[in-house]
Amino acid sequence: MKDFRPAKKRAEISVGESARILRELQELTQSQLSELTGIPQATISAIENGRVNLGVERAKVLARALKCHPAVLVFPGWELPLERAA
Fold it and tell me: What's this model's pTM, rounded to 2 decimal places?
């Protein structure tokens, strides 16, 4: 474990960018995600572009559809201190 080196952070991403990345990795369009979640496509677009706050309830719905934990969407840049992570 002494050879462990934490990865360097390469980019800061926003909540909306996190949602877009997860959606695109699953090869979903905004319209398809809208159908899965019941969230209007225009709202998904606004979230991804930072015009609308995600909010906890929307995060839960999107996380279910994107198969991730809601915290991945709500706190995309959050880190644990190294001594607590291991």
Answer: 0.76
